[in-house]
Amino acid sequence: xVRNTVRSASTLDSxxxxxxxxxxxxxxxxxxxxxxxxxxxxxxxxxxxxNTSLGGFSVVESAKELLELFCPATVSCADIxxxxxxxxxxxxxxxxxxxxxxxxxxxxxxxxxxxxxxxxTSFTLDEMIKLFSSKGLSLxxxxxxxxxxxxxxxxxxxxxxxxQEDSKGNLTLIDSSLDKIFADELIxxxxxxxSSSITVNNDPETSMLFDNQYYRNLFSHKGLFQSDSxxxxxxxxxxxxxxxxxxxxxxxxxxGESFFKLINIGVxxxxxxxxxxxxxxxx
Length: 283
What we know:
Blueprint: H1 2-12, H2 16-28, H3 57-70, H4 77-91, H5 125-134, H6 139-146, E1 153-155, E2 163-165, E3 171-173, H7 180-189, E4 199-201, H8 213-219, H9 226-233, H10 235-246, H11 248-262
Antiparallel strand pairs: 1-4, 2-3
């Protein structure tokens, strides 16, 4: 039921796979994989500025409504989100990976917990390593899960730190790790006075396909974020980037392992949570 819901929605909106993948990451890194990012209300995770651009909520809710009809109070929203992200990757051409179910939905969702647990696009490698390590994820997991940027898009503000604005409102590239031609394209797409709603594809080559192009882009100095480019420039991660850029099968295999670890962070079971009747509110 979840897979059919994801496929139907993604056929109508090709941006959904990227949104669902980002949604599960933002859920699992805060409070664990417990559906806390799905809860609505003042001061919940959804209200933090880092999460206001998230999407895909309606797909999860649609799957929940369907499941409640056929098997009420049985499948948690946390499970639906993990399954939906898996199916989104597969729909976009990525590998099919195993997902264990049995998660309970959390009852806590606080905006104040988001920033301390979320990667910022301007993070150094050391900052990312520290955060990922606190979640039980290795350096290889960091490089692998960054490959999620092979699909999806980002608002111009997410990489504006790589440019400087002069007194006339013109942008100039100040990050030498970014390809100049690519940077000029970004400036055209995202001038200083652009609407905050404008987005750019994470992968300028195959934006809708889950493949290893992300890593090839890093070799061409076309990583959209500073946190992308550092994976190529730092010797600790460059070898893995090289491996994945040359071998998509290797990336897909490792993706299955790292994604499995991601969606099992801080899982709640038994009395630690509940199975919500609606994903947007606790019972």
